[in-house]
Amino acid sequence: MELRTHISVQNLNVFYGNEQALKNITLDIPDKNITVIIGPSGCGKTTLLKSFNRLIDSIDGVKVSGKVLVDGENIFDPKVEVTRIRKKMGLLSQKPYPLPMSIYDNIAYGPRIHGIKDKKRLDEIVEHYLKESGLWNEIKDRLHSPASRLSVGQQQRLCLARGLAVEPEIILGDEPTSALDPKSSQRIEHRFLVLKKQYTIVIVTHILRQAKRLANYVVFLYLGELIEHGPAEDVFNNPKEEMTKEYIKGIIS
Ligand code: ADP
Ligand code: MG
Fewer CB within a 10 Å sphere, N or C end of the chain? Predict the structure, then answer.
């Protein structure tokens, strides 16, 4: 497997007050693949993900050192505009947060902000991204009904479509199926497997079976340290570190 770097993390340290949540992380995230970040609760998965789009900045008392290079640019450089970095990344959180408006307007929201006003063009965009997120067939006859009436699983796919509509390069997911029933989780997982041809995808999960279904590349964190990372076949079938072996066998969790 040829892996081209898209995000490069170099000596990243993150502190919440005096507590160090990430310890000197150095890591390349491959382009147009699914990278899965695994590890027990509290090991720093969310913190690492939030460092990629600088959402970490919005937390009080956070201190960051080191670099995160996205397309070669250190996003923690004070000259960098956060909005431009965030536009490159769509984020799915644990629970879907649709905007309090119609299905259509949820998708059109980003493109409108970026200046697209033409009705026909917006119709095309809405249809295109609802198809990309696998929701179109279910809701094409009620595009103008409130997004809040969708099931939670549909709302998560709507949020995916809304994120894709601003044309990101990278999709970040923080345990994006944790609020979903098995069928909806499966639909979201299937979308990721389709979308990885076009996007760099980074998913946090504590579900090992999900990690095995999705991952091309695996990052294993434990207590803020990067224990092991590599192609999924290697980490799952032939882990180098004792700690990884134990985690994969379910001895530590
Ligand atoms: P994970 O996503 O793997 O469960 P997190 O990245 O959320 O882990 O948290 C890593 C560590 O940082 C934990 O010890 C957690 O308690 C701490 N932490 C996370 N967010 C905050 C915060 N906003 N303020 C203080 N400590 C935090
Ligand atoms: Mg988390």
Answer: N
- State whether the beta carbon of 15 lies less than 6 angstroms from ligand 1: no
Q: Is any atom of ligand 1 closer than 6 Å to the C-beta of 47?
A: yes
Sign of CA pseudo-dihedral 150, 154, 157, 159: positive
pTM above 0.85, yes or no: yes
Q: Among 47, 51, 219, which residue has the most ligand 1 atoms within 8 Å of its CB, making it the best to mutate?
A: 47
CB of 40 within 6 A of ligand 1: the answer is no
> Which alpha helices (H) appear in 133-204, and where do they start and end?
136-139, 152-164, 182-195
Q: Which residue has the tokens 């389709």?
A: 194
Radius of gyration of the chain (CA): 18
Query: pLDDT per residue over 177-229, tens digit each?
Result: 999 999 999 999 999 999 999 999 999 999 999 999 999 999 999 999 999 99
35 - beta bridge partners? 202, 217
Does residue 82's CB lie within 6 angstroms of at least one atom of ligand 1?
no
Encoding tokens for residue 29?
């995230």
Of 61, 58, 123, 127, the residue nearest 86 (C-alpha): 58
Ligand in closest contact with the CA of 44: 1
For the chain, how far is it from start to end, CA to CA, in angstroms? 29
| Dist. CA 207–CA 226, nearest whole Å | 18
Using DSSP's 3-state secondary structure scheme, residue 239 falls into coil
pLDDT value, residue 252: 78
The minimum-distance atom of ligand 1 relative to the CA of 61 is 24
